[in-house]
Amino acid sequence: MRLRSWQFIVFSLLAFTAMLFTVAPLGAQDRSATPIPNTVWVGADGKYEAQPDTVLLQFNISAQEDKQQDANQKAGRAADQVRQLLRSNGLDPKDAQVGQFSVQPVYDYKNPKRKLVGYRVDTNISIKLKDFSKVGPITQGLSDMEDVTGNQSLSYLLDDMEAAKIKAVEDALARARAEADAVARSSGRTLGELSYASVDTYEPSPVRPMAFAQARVAGAMAAPAPPTAEFGAQKITVTAHVNALYMLK
Description:
Blueprint: H1 5-27, E1 39-50, E2 54-65, H2 68-88, E3 97-108, E4 115-129, H3 135-143, E5 149-157, H4 161-186, E6 191-202, E7 207-212, E8 236-248
């Protein structure tokens, strides 16, 4: 029998709709959707805790003078001091990274004519340290520099974050399977294979134990130890959530 053009279109739409209803149960993994017979749907959280293996040290060089050339030279001298400080602690200055560099005019806004009073040079520098014993000498050396470095901050990081995420997912999936197995045993059934799973991982923000600005006291004999001295670094916790669909035998 030969179909007319409109009959062929209607037949094609019906066939496509039937195909959608056929594959829909495979994607109906939401708890709010129609349950799939002989399956159990579980959700579980997992985590992985690790000691941080990297310290991110950030600070800025800032110099202001009446003339732009003088400000540049002052900032250059400070940069030379930073490079020497890193070398004296066994670090290559090339490992430090410059994130921003700017030269801006400074105005006296109290003057109605906005009088130019100087120029300010700012640059942000960061360096990652694997040897935590170097943190103290470097931060102290930066603090001892002449009015040009400040806004130091430390962040503890985990270098191989992807490996930590995988371990968190493994923990979440193990918890999900244990819950599903409990449901199966309680109902006199046997847990079958995993049919479907969705995974979400959550990377924590960097742990920031301290942030300290430049502070100088005239005639001070020695700077006191920072509040974080002798304490260990906070562990980094990576979490994951798993939704899993298991077959029941």
